[in-house]
Amino acid sequence: MEGNLPEEIPFLRAFLHRLVVGCPTLEVDDLQQQTMDRVLQYQHRYDPARPLRPWVQSIAFRIFLDARKASLREPTTLATESVPAPPQDAVAPSVSSEDVQRLLAQLPDVQQDIMRRFYLQEHSVQEIADATQLSPGTVKSHLHRARLQLARNHQAEAWQ
Description:
It is a single chain. It is built from seven helices and no strands. It folds into two domains: 5-73; 96-159, Arc Repressor Mutant, subunit A (Orthogonal Bundle), CATH 1.10.10. The protein is elongated, with a radius of gyration of 26 Å. With 160 residues, it is mainly alpha-helical.
């Protein structure tokens, strides 16, 4: 392989450090090892007429994307003993059914129906789509718009 691979390692590590910022589940050492393994595995595909660093970084980037995608699929567990209990005044007060009805009455009929089915009857998006003959994307849009409207209404009430 043309180019000096050991000289690229510090640049590879710096590149990987920049990538993993904000991804606490990914380790630079692991990504570097996987990158070097793949570089050696596919060294026959390297074109010596081209610079080595961009080729190595493109391999590292693909490995990073795969690792990030895999880490997002894996459920994370929290040690419950390390999580302090919320203060008593931080616990959300119970909401009466009259309050729920008052809040839902602020929404258009279709959004009221979808919010009731989703939150009160615990139907899935697909079940709601089948029952209302809407696409799942439309159901999600209605849920999103309803949440935004309720948040706006809540902010407006807070300012009064």
